[in-house]
Specification:
This protein has 430 residues and is an alpha+beta fold. The chain has helices at 16-26, 55-64, 75-79, 82-88, 102-105, 107-116, 130-139, 163-174, 243-263, 300-304, 312-320, 397-408, 424-427; strands spanning 7-13, 31-38, 48-49, 69-72, 93-94, 124-127, 144-148, 157-160, 186-190, 195-204, 208-210, 215-216, 219-221, 225-228, 233-236, 269-281, 284-293, 335-342, 354-355, 357-358, 366-370, 373-376, 379-382, 386-394, 411-412.
């Protein structure tokens, strides 16, 4: 690859993921300037938050400020085609095309795609017709999984325990009462019983680099109780994914997906996330694909980037220039645990803004990534949703979790809410 110097980078998004990406770039001496659109009250410590109203204004800003490339963080702009618009304007972009982003943008597209290429996934039906869906639901043994086809910010999945509940939820989804227009088409799946893994691959269309397997914690409350959320914490690497399991995921899911995307003339460039359910079939553990995302997860991004020894900047150029195969990618042998601190009413409703106080943070423990925050008269305010992520780093998973919760103890605002058991599956026998 060519020598990389004096980079100006624009990051699209306003969450903890985008803060983590900006933080990784800010530690690279080759990065001169970082912009965020729109950013949050914490990202302006790493760079400059900008505000524009249209794609045309955004393109003018990028060109006039001689920005080297744009990193698109969230799923919505990718699915809506922002990367295509920017590329057509001659701007370098880290992120897949809108066609490739259908892997996340449409669960029906994803399920049909993986079925065509023999990728292991749960038995399913995608439909907009109640009678057809009812017949399939009755054929399944509960629990039963119903998914809205479109984007729902990670919350468009319902698991029910009876046929009656499934039919009631189906009716609500098809009528737009649950998840709005995103559920006018539904995907109904058999329930897979096992444990989940999050596996991320950086992809340049042909070559790919696997990052350490991680595990997200979706439920709001400790011991996996309460409703699903966007994620209340994560850790990596997980001992629940050994070398043999990672090889299975690579050969059965990642490789055939990238080959299939090439075959269907929508090669995948960027970050591909595979949500995996590991199921025990007799004495054999088998990975099944639950879902794809076409970007870094949040909060997984916050705990994966600190494990990179190879600079994120080099990886981005490896992807954008289709030269990942030329890079020698190194991963730290340490562990990371991220604990999300959310606002009082998350995920049920909005919360009143509250002032945040943070005591001195010992950087030997880790760091904090900011998400749902803004600045008011110089004071950092928790503005609702997931507010920040305390990222602990250690030589063992146990040490990393201890450090993460030590950081949690440094944060104070009224109504703060977090789980006290991140990493419990891996540590329960330690």
């Amino acid at each position: 690859m060519k020598s990389i110097t004096s980079q100006k980078i624009l990051i699209i998004g306003n969450g903890g993921r985008e803060y983590a990406i900006g933080r990784a770039f800010s530690q690279d001496s080759r990065v001169d300037r970082i912009y965020f659109y729109p950013g949050n009250g914490g990202t302006n410590k790493l760079g400059e938050n900008i505000s524009v109203q249209t794609d045309e204004e955004l393109i003018r800003f990028i060109l006039s400020h001689q920005i080297d490339f744009v990193f698109i963080g969230p799923e919505a702009p990718l699915v809506e085609g922002m990367s295509d618009v920017l590329r057509e304007a001659g701007i370098k972009v880290f992120g897949p095309s809108s066609k490739a982003a259908q892997l996340e943008g449409s669960k029906a597209f994803m399920k049909d795609f993986v079925s065509r290429f023999g990728i292991p996934t749960a038995r399913y039906l995608q439909t907009s017709h109640y009678d057809e869906a009812r017949e399939f639901i009755i054929s399944l043994t509960p629990p039963i999984v119903l998914k809205a086809d479109g984007l729902c910010a990670g919350k468009g999945v319902v698991i029910v325990n009876t046929h009656k509940q499934a039919l009631e939820e189906l009716k609500n989804m098809l009528e737009g009462k649950s998840f709005g227009e995103a559920a006018r088409c539904v995907v109904i799946e058999e329930f897979l019983d096992g444990y989940e893994l999050s596996v991320f691959a950086l992809c340049d269309g042909e070559e790919y680099v696997l990052l350490p397997a991680s595990q997200d914690h979706k439920r709001l409350l400790s011991a996996d109780r309460g409703p699903n959320t966007g994620g209340m914490g994560a850790y990596a690497p997980t001992p629940l994914c050994d070398e043999e399991m990672m090889k299975k995921i690579e050969n059965l899911i990642i490789k055939p997906t990238l080959k299939g995307m090439q075959k269907e003339k929508m090669p995948f460039y960027g970050v591909l996330f595979a949500g995996i359910m590991v199921v025990s079939i007799g004495d054999v553990l088998q990975p099944y694909l639950l879902e794809f995302n076409v970007r870094f997860g949040d909060p997984e991004c916050e705990i994966l980037l600190p494990l990179l020894k190879t600079p994120l900047l080099d990886l981005c150029y490896g992807v954008m220039e289709h030269k990942l195969g030329l890079l020698k990618v190194e991963i730290s042998q340490r562990y990371c645990v991220g604990v999300v601190i959310a606002s009082q009413n998350y995920p049920y409703s909005t919360s009143e803004a509250k002032a945040i106080s943070i005591n001195d943070v010992d950087e030997n423990l880790g760091h904090i990534c900011f998400a749902g925050v803004n600045l008011k008269d110089g004071i950092l305010m928790a503005t609702g949703g997931r507010v920040l992520v305390c990222v602990g780093v250690g030589e063992s998973l146990k040490e990393a979790r201890k450090n993460a919760y030590a950081l949690v103890g440094k944060v104070h605002f009224d109504g703060m809410n977090y789980r006290d058991d991140i990493g419990f599956r891996a540590l329960k026998n330690v």
